[in-house]
Design goal:
Elements: E1 11-15, H1 21-29, E2 34-36, H2 53-57, E3 66-70, H3 78-91, E4 96-101, H4 104-117, H5 125-131, H6 133-137, H7 141-152, E5 157-161, H8 168-178, H9 202-208, H10 211-217, H11 222-230, H12 246-263, H13 272-279
Parallel strand pairs: 1-3, 1-4, 2-3, 4-5
Helix pairs in contact: 3-7, 12-13
């Protein structure tokens, strides 16, 4: 089936980065009613003025009932989240939104490590917390999620903890939220939050995250892709420190403790241990 003017992508997995989103996207895409975009993180609504809607629609299988766009870039920068959310709403006001969250300190460390490995950051974690706004913005869960709740309605936004993705309760909540006719055949395998100690040359990272590479790698067995990718890394960097100084601890407490308190008002699970961990810094 070809996309028509009436066809709309109707499911968006928008965050948060390093919170199991890749695993969840692949899990959702494995259901026979859901078409996962064939380009990882299309980020179409980050700048719709220069992107073709026809090209965007060509990335989905319209023979399936639900089309899924999984783009954590939609909630990477809090200053842009509202505009992106409004662009998605203007495109499809009936869309549903899924947002995964992870213990904020673990998420920040994992995010920093990924950015360091890719060559986006060359500073310490303490310096990055002051200069790299995305590290904090992606853990401002309430501020990010509330934009989507205010726009689409709470009944159309599903919030999941990454630590609880691989359990029956989460699967049932997804089935109910999406009104799926049958259960999933496989469980969620959460592995994209795992951390490594390798550093990749930035030029090579551009190749490995290029859309053409995404298409080409689908032609080869996963074992070959993993082998090639792992051999593109430089030697292990054993000096990468995750230790926070006093100033960083104060920044995290000041910025994120209020976020966790407000987050508790919109989720149906307990996040008090996250708040406690921040307060103990």
């Amino acid at each position: 089936m070809q996309s028509s003017s009436t066809n709309k992508v109707d499911l968006f997995l928008v965050g948060s980065r390093k919170s199991g989103t890749t695993s969840l996207a692949n899990f959702l895409g494995g259901h026979n009613e859901i078409s996962l975009c064939n380009i990882k993180e299309p980020n179409h609504f980050n700048n719709t003025s220069v992107k073709s809607i026809d090209n965007y629609h060509s990335m989905f299988d319209w023979n399936k009932n639900i089309q899924l766009d999984a783009s954590t870039g939609y909630t990477s920068n809090l200053n842009n989240t509202k505009n992106i959310c409004q662009a998605i709403y203007a495109y499809n006001p009936k869309a549903k939104v899924v947002y995964t969250i992870r213990e904020p300190l673990e998420r920040i460390r994992s995010h920093y490590r990924m950015s360091y490995e890719r060559g986006d950051l060359n500073t310490s974690l303490n310096e990055a917390l002051q200069s790299h706004k995305l590290l904090l913005d992606c853990s401002r869960y309430y501020s990010q999620i509330n934009v989507f709740i205010h726009t689409f309605g709470k009944e159309n936004v599903l919030i999941l903890k990454s630590e609880e993705l691989n359990n029956c309760k989460t699967e049932k909540s997804i089935i109910y939220f999406l009104n799926l006719g049958q259960p999933f055949e496989k469980q969620i395998g959460v592995d994209n939050t795992a951390d490594t100690d390798y550093r990749m040359p930035k030029s090579m990272d551009r190749i490995l995250t290029n859309k053409l590479y995404t298409i080409i790698k689908s032609m080869f067995p996963k074992s070959i892709v993993t082998f090639v990718k792992s051999n593109c890394y430089k030697a292990k960097n054993k000096n990468l420190s995750m230790k926070l100084n006093l100033e960083s601890k104060e920044i995290l407490k000041k910025e994120l403790v209020p976020e966790m308190h407000k987050l508790q008002t919109i989720v149906d699970f307990d996040v008090s241990n996250w708040t406690e961990k921040l307060n103990l810094l």
